[in-house]
Fold this sequence. Notes:
The protein is of the alpha+beta class. The chain has helices at 2-19, 48-58, 60-73, 83-95, 105-119, 198-219, 232-237, 239-254, 284-298, 313-349, 364-403, and strands at 76-80, 97-98, 102-103, 121-128, 135-140, 147-150, 157-161, 169-170, 177-181, 224-229, 268-273, 355-359.
Amino acid sequence: xxxxxxxxxxxxxxxxxxxxxxxxxxxxxxxxxxxxxxxxxxxxxxxxxxxxxxxxxxxxxxxxxxxxxxxxxxxxxxxxxxxxxxxxxxxxxxxxxxxxxxxxxxxxxxxxxxxxxxxxxxxxxxxxxxxxxxxxxxxxxxxxxxxxxxxxxxxxxxxxxxxxxxxxxxxxxxxxxxxxxxxxxxxxxxxxxxxxxxxxxxxxxxxxxxxxxxxxxxxxxxxxxxxxxxxxxxxxxxxxxxxxxxxxxxxxxxxxxxxxxxxxxxxxxxxxxxxxxxxxxxxxxxxxxxxxxxxxxxxxxxxxxxxxxxxxxxxxxxxxxxxxxxxxxxxxxxxxxxxxxxxxxxxxxxxxxxxxxxxxxxxxxxxxxxxxxxxxxxxxxxxxxxxxxxxxxxxxxxxxxxxx
Length: 404
């Protein structure tokens, strides 16, 4: 009986291994007492990440810019020199689970690049299958769950986690951890966010928006000043009662009941709108100045964000070329991540071959320009062939005349 139970359990485990169950995540969420970050000063989430999140929530232009950059980076395909490896990579890139709700290597890279641009750092983890035959899932690691320290050498990096919220533990398999820093300073590990330098500008912009909202709340929703000047001895004796009755009548008149009411008063009564003699400050110039700083920092042309600023066709072309160079730099950062993931997967599968990443064109305009450039090169080659042929015929004629 005991032997039968053991064989059944062994068979069940083998079936689960065959179905591709993944191993455990090393960089899971922290579970422990609250306020653990007060003692975890080395965590990648250093408090300023929350500030960057608030900037994206408070200034929609910033959030839209980062989302557009991620979309403009475009898609890619992984090319393998081995046919078997190519089939395996095609299936892996399209069907690898990402977190709990996404599928595909592209979705993993979108979230990875989003963290990289927002916080200046991005982390991920490759979760292998329990049977060791490839990657079973990819996981975008929250930066608050990972601690990065300088290794024994200036070019080494050590990863730690703090799953219980009290003590940090070194990562058991650091080779599975993916970490990228955006434009780090010399000698430092952590990168700098694309939003660094924007908190001050964003605070000014939010102050302007808040003032605009308050002014429209005051002047858009009209408030009235009702002044009653008593006249004669009778009005003076009953001024308080008259004023209270007038206040009740005015409140009933202004009450939103769905129908228009009139206010009728007898005597010297003056009614005026509060703030009607003041003008709202023109905020177009300061708001545009702040937006120009934000757009310059994010590196996107204004017309992509829907800003109708005056520009020339030549200027727009130059801005598009600058944007293309920015996107190429982001692609270079993602290249190493893609190659490392795919190489790790093929090594687990025991498949060799060289790997390269082929990115799609940035936009349709680039494809048109490249096609036009290719056409011009072909026309130039055709003209060169005609000229060489003409020069050759002339040389033969001259040589023939010389022999005669």
